[in-house]
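Notebook p. 47: complex prediction with phosphoenolpyruvate.
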Amino acid sequence: MRDKIIAGNWKMNTTVDDAVKLATEIKARLTGFKDAILLICPPDVNLYPVQKIIEKSVIKLGAQNMHYEKSGAYTGETSGEMLKSIGCDYVIVGHSERRAMFGDTDVVVRKKLQAIIEHDLIPILCIGEQLEDREAGKTEKVIDSQLNAALKDVPTDWMEKIVIAYEPVWAIGTGKTASPGQAQEVHKFIREKIGREYNPNLAEETTILYGGSVKPDNSDALFAEKDIDGFLIGGASLKADSFEQIARSASS
Ligand code: PEP
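Predicted complex, structure tokens below:
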């Protein structure tokens, strides 16, 4: 059975006090939750204080980014060893905001993916089309090429660790969600591609998350789709009650 994951990407939000408060509230609301892996990804500066709150709970810690080099003169960057040393389990890679604003090209995404796996962390690889790609009927072509670039020469034993997040760029932070049918179509395409290029068992075991304006009022319908295994949530993960309600979609 593949993992279900409910992941919150807090992006560049929360002071240390805000982060501690939010993590404490999420922990209290979801004590003992077993229906999915719960993951929160605070900004780097808040990783350690949040880890101190969640360390003995069911909630796991993720980072929003990581450099591919081990250490050295990379001002402002964070290494895999650093993330590992504070108890991180997951790292988001290839988020569309990083691709658009911080030079995370396909080549960089591939290097980061490798470094994340080499540090025994779990990558959440984000892919997704722009609105103009969708309108031009090119969604599958874009997804195919992003996967080809990120997974170039990735062996089966690495692929077993990778989580994929399908995040249509036009749905991120816009309030526009892909319909369950639109999302399912792309998730199925991704799973079939993994089945062809690796093997059908691995495809069945791969967790594929949906991200893009997930909210309590659309999460049940999205989760009901066969190939949607959870969510990467931005805005709605910044409120403990909405994160909890979305997480509870995994229970139905
Ligand atoms: C995201 O940042 O990955 C995301 C999906 O954001 P939002 O839920 O706010 O659209």
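Notes: The chain has one domain: 5-251. The two ends are 16 Å apart (CA to CA).
Next step: compare against the earlier run before touching the bench.
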